[in-house]
Write a structure and sequence with these properties.
By secondary structure, the chain is an alpha/beta fold. The protein folds into two domains: about 15-255, Type I PLP-dependent aspartate aminotransferase-like (Major domain) (Aspartate Aminotransferase, domain 2); about 260-360, Aspartate Aminotransferase, domain 1 (Alpha-Beta Complex), CATH 3.90.1150. Helix content is about 35%, strand content about 15%. The protein contains ten helices and 14 strands. The protein has a seven-stranded mixed β-sheet, with helices on both faces. A three-stranded antiparallel β-sheet has the order 11-12-14, with helices on one face. A two-stranded parallel ribbon has the order 1-13. Helix 2 (about 45-60) packs parallel to helix 7 (about 240-260). The longest helix is centred in the C-terminal third of the chain and has 21 residues, at about 260-280. The radius of gyration is 21 Å and the shape is globular. The chain starts with a strand and ends with a helix. The structure holds pyridoxal-5'-phosphate. Pyridoxal-5'-phosphate binds near residues 9, 173 and 176.
């Protein structure tokens, strides 16, 4: 039976990307060695990192003055690396979910971390708009897609933030929507994320950093936590996560070959419209996120109160039809279909058919 992978992360990758990685595990570029056993210092690996950086820049239209790094530690390490490198006195955070809150918590250890707004009172079902960014903040941190709650900062909300931030450096956790749509990178000081949602297997973190925002804090920064270390070392200061970087490169090539971020955005919109339309017309399901803040990447829906007892039965029905990873996060409940870049329209159509067939038999 064909499996449809709706896991939130680690998550679906294009089949050809998985195959290319598998081949390199057996024989890396005809060298007679496995990707798993080559030295990261060998002449043949540096080009992999360089090409991955170049392709990230090309696909996201990254302007001059930025570097793309591939580091360990996950997005979670960035929660502390960001304040370490950028926060002298004060930083501002938009609290749109658990990940945003974890980032904010780390910043509190470095100075005054201000929560400018939060949607916690509504279990993060919407993106707040009514706030100001303090002009004296060293940076303003946002989470562009809230993986757990299925909310995403729309282009309109991002434009509002570009306006609100004024001269304050903008920092974004884009773990779960990087490369899913074009983004105006020039508006940001740092964009980071764990690669295991839209790019690679777990183990590598991408960081797009504007070089001239670094070096302005007075504290000592441990070598490994200083972005400049990794800029100088070309993501090779220490042994980098070789395998996930290789896979990330394959995903970037796949994206470029198919038409880049514009192409994938159109596909993501079509997928999201298909599934949200199904949920909105459903007798038994209802979406959890406010319509204007709905995520294209993580689509959350729950059973209506009068159908709650069907939770396990629908899960069983869907599992028998090849649906994988659709259980909602415990803090939202219900179901979540993560429709990352690698998920095609056919996969989402299969889920929609599954929902319709289930309702038809009720
Ligand atoms: C998954 C996720 C994280 C955590 O990433 P790790 O790489 O596991 O640390 C952080 N932020 C967002 C938005 C996520 O989706």
């Amino acid at each position: 039976m064909k499996k449809y992978n709706f896991n939130a992360g680690p998550s679906i990758l294009p089949q050809e990307v998985i195959k290319a990685t598998a081949e390199a595990v057996l024989d890396f570029q005809g060298e007679g060695l496995s990707l798993l056993e080559i030295s990261h210092r060998a002449k043949y690996f540096q080009p992999v990192v360089d090409e991955a950086e170049a392709l990230m820049k090309e696909l996201l239209n990254v302007p001059e003055g930025y570097r793309v790094l591939f580091l360990g530690g996950g997005a979670s390490l960035q929660f502390c690396m960001v304040p370490y490198n950028l926060m002298e006195k004060k930083a501002a955070y938009l609290n749109t979910g658990v990940w945003a809150k974890k980032a904010l918590k780390e910043a509190k250890g470095f100075g005054e971390a201000v929560e400018v707004a939060s949607s916690a009172e509504a279990n993060f079902t919407y993106i707040p708009v009514d706030y100001e960014v303090p002009k004296d903040a060293d940076y303003f941190h946002i989470t562009t897609n809230n993986t757990i709650y299925g909310t995403e900062l729309s282009d309109a909300k991002l434009n509002d933030i570009y306006h609100k931030k004024g001269d304050v450096t903008l920092v974004a956790d884009m773990s779960s929507d990087i490369l899913s749509r074009p983004i105006d990178v020039a508006q940001y000081g740092i964009i980071y994320g764990g690669a295991q949602k839209n790019l690679a297997p777990a183990g590598v973190t991408f960081v797009i950093v504007k070089e001239d925002i670094l070096g302005h804090v007075t504290r000592y920064i441990p070598t490994m936590l200083d972005y400049r270390t990794h800029i100088d070392g070309g993501s090779m200061f220490n042994t980098p996560p070789v395998l996930p970087i290789y896979t990330a490169l394959q995903t970037l090539k796949w994206l470029k070959k198919n038409g880049g971020v514009e192409w994938v955005m159109k596909r993501n919109i079509a997928k999201a419209e298909l599934l949200y339309d199904c949920i909105d017309h459903s007798k038994i399901f209802v979406g959890t996120a406010k319509a204007e803040d709905r995520s294209r990447m993580n689509i959350c829906f729950v059973l209506k109160p009068e159908y709650q007892e069907l939770q396990d039965d629908f899960m069983k029905f869907a599992t028998e039809r090849g649906m994988v990873g659709i259980k909602g996060h415990r803090s939202v409940g219900g179901f979540r279909a993560s429709c990352y870049n690698a998920m095609d329209l056919e996969g989402v159509q299969a889920l929609v058919n599954c929902i319709r067939n289930y309702e038809a038999k009720l």
